[in-house]
Amino acid sequence: MSLKYMTPTEQFKKYLPKDYVELVDYGPFGKSQDEAGVNNIGQFKEVLEEHPMCSGCLMAYFIRVFFAALPNPEDTVTLGTAGCGRLAISQAAVPFIYGNYGDQNAMASGLSRAFRLRFPDKKKDVVTLAGDGGTMDIGFSMTMHSWIRGEKFTTIMLDNEVYGNTGGQESGMSPQGAILKMAPEGKKFEKMPATELAKTAGCVYVVRISPTNIKKTAKSIKRAILVAREVGPTFIHVYTSCNIEYSIPTEEVFKDAKDQEKDRFSFEEYMTDEAREVIERIEGEEKKAKKAKKGARKEEVVS
Amino acid sequence: MSQNARPKLEKKIVDAGYLLKEAPRTQQFITGAQAMAEAVKRANVDMAIAYPITPQSEVMHLVGDIYAQGHIKEYYRAEEELGTMSAIAGAARAGVRMFTATSGPGLLRGLEAIASWPGHRIPAVLGVLTRVVNAPLSIQPDNIEIAYLMHCGALVLHAENQQDTFDMTLAAFAIAEKVDVYIPVAVATEGFFVTHAKGYVNTTPEDMALTPIDPTAAPVPAMDNETPPARIQRDAPVQKSNFMSYLIHAVWQQEIWDSNKRSMKYIYEYLGGPIEVQDPEADVFVVASGCAAAQAREAHRYAQEEGLSVGFIKVRSIRPFPVDEIREAVKNAKKLIVPEHNIIGWLCKEVKASIPNSGIVVEGPRVYGGMTLPVELIMAEIYNALGIEHNMKL
User: B150 with B115: CB under 8 angstroms?
Assistant: First the structure.
């Protein structure tokens, strides 16, 4: 149904914007990750192309990877809140709900439950993407309680360690000692332990990552979404530096992300046994299918 | 519990017109909270989200019970009111019928989300069981919260008693989901005075339910990746500071308030109109809404017994406000008395703004902080207005 609802009839096609038609014809909708995933970016029309983010923004890069990594873009709804991220997220060709301040996980609780009511036999993926302020400060209670209630959707925190969009104020996720607006003498307490909080609150799959490796990043996103469908809340804490507020020269952004990999954003992947079962089952099936396809191709060549 | 394991109830599906105006009714002696829950039971609600606050809690306890009986498909207790109201906004995007209720401080805590419901085109129904919001805090009835609520864009109906609470709540679902309305409807009534007191309510049959929501019949279709038009076009965000964003916000909010106005015909259709008028030829009118209308009705009866030229106007709809109807009804009046259960007199201000001769409006009597509104207070103003000497010991 979801693919059908976006596909125009031949007669109507010529009246639609070119961008729309191209998305239907050459976009990732209805295609597998092998046909239109992070491994072949550049060979299909991505759901996110233009955005108004700053030059060299790691967050914009991550959001691009995120959209390319979606296992089911035609049946995904994203939710977010005020912050830099939504400027790009809202320009992707995937429905995006922009709510009030920090309420993305409360909205997603209602939305994902309502989807299961209306479409019990369909996979509708719900993902919240909000900044460190939206997820861990102003939205803290709603984030935590959605996890505690075991709501089945994915939470992604775009952590640039600062309120970038409002002009560089300290957030709970800023590192201790950082001199920022509203922290004129440097931040006096530690960065909040987001992944620990997630695990304690009942997230069944938790990843902390600096997204330097595209494949690894995409794998985490996919796992988080697939596990959320079946088991419970999943969380990705991703480093998406603010090169403006932290004055990281554009050409140094990636190097900084690599440095952070050895520092505050060392890779961490946690999963419960139930989550592991789901991941092993799905990835096992995918491997088998790939092998069978390869075998079939070989046979074709031989014959 | 999985949806397969939930109790399945056989109900006769009827439209709002039949349910509200023609369906057989049975008299029950129940509280206002029960009346609201009985309406929800008959409204084919998909999902309700609860959070406790006195005096509202009673309503959502009862809604929880009717969920357990199978009248509602999904129900949970949220973390607090902002979480509740936000979850309503999220769920409504999936095209389901939503209900929640709150009181005073809870309403104000949830107001950031509620104020955005109309713009998000959320046709949810919100019960507002009023109580004190300002310091010093109290749980007692005072309806000042309606002053904050009435500028959000939502419809606001104000129930006088248990029967109104039932009828208005049921009608609210039908009105909210009209394609030319499609904004939330708040049904307010006074905490304790109505919620915890029993009155006679004529209810429709329990096995008769309102037509389900049609998520395709909406000015902004459900965001379910099923209902066209597909949302895969890249739109520049409205939230940018540029000329287009100002324009989009402006026209969008104009449409919200136009939708609010357009709901008036349905208030006539399902609730008999936004005002009730008794003795239209009178010199002095008592104009009131909610619980104050019950006391004003009694004052009107006293005045009738004494042969005084006193009329009565009950305002059912605070938003849309019946400006034309009130102006017409009081065009020959010499004095208007507006009794209220709050200190600022929000109804009085609305009435004054509706007529060309606002000098005829008597500001009060007003009680607040949870006090009752003695009929004698209204009578004293009636005597003053008619120039009758009186010596009432209040």
Answer: no
d(CA A133, CA A154) in angstroms, rounded, equals 17
pLDDT at A302 over 80: no
Task: For residue A170, give Cα distances in angstroms to A100, A102, A204, A250, B181.
Answer: 20, 16, 29, 22, 43
Local confidence band at B333 (pLDDT 50, 70, 90 cut-offs) = very high
Where residue B239 falls among pLDDT bands split at 50, 70, 90? low
Cβ neighbours around B361 below 10 Å, total:
22
Q: Which CATH number fits domain B275-386: 2.170.190.11, 3.40.50.920, 3.40.50.300, 1.20.1730.10?
A: 3.40.50.920
For domain A28-271, the CATH superfamily is Thiamin diphosphate (ThDP)-binding fold, Pyr/PP domains (3.40.50.970)
* Residues in contact with A32: Cβ distance below 8 Å, sequence separation at least 6, in sequence order: none
Q: Does the beta-carbon distance from B89 to A110 stay under 8 Å?
A: yes
Rounded CA separation A87/A65 (Å): 16
Are A124 and B231 within 8 A, CB to CB?
Answer: no
Give the pLDDT score at B41.
98
Confidence class of residue B2 from pLDDT cuts 50, 70 and 90?
low
Of B86, B97, B227, which to mutate for an interface test with A (greatest number of A Cβ within 10 Å)? B86
Q: Can you list the positions of beta strands (E) in A173-274?
A: 205-209, 234-239, 268-271
The C-alpha of A20 sits at a distance from chain B's nearest C-alpha, in angstroms, of 6
Matching fold, domains B3-210 and B275-386: yes
B196 confidence band (pLDDT: 50, 70, 90): very high
Q: Which fold has domain B3-210?
A: Rossmann fold (3.40.50)
User: Is B230–A6 a contact, with Cβ atoms under 8 angstroms apart?
Assistant: yes
CB contact under 8 A, B236 and A91: yes
CB contact under 8 A, B93 and A1: no
B49 shares contact with chain A (CB less than 8 Å): yes
Closest CA to B336 of B351, B350, B325: B351
Shortest distance between the Cα of A184 and any Cα of chain B, in A, equals 28
**A103: chain B residues, CB-CB within 8 Å:** 82-83, 86, 89, 113
What are the extents of the domains in chain B? Answer: 3-210, 275-386
ipTM field: 0.94
Helix (H, G, I), strand (E, B) or coil at B79: coil
User: Shortest CA distance to A173 belongs to which of A208, A146, A204, A147?
Assistant: A208
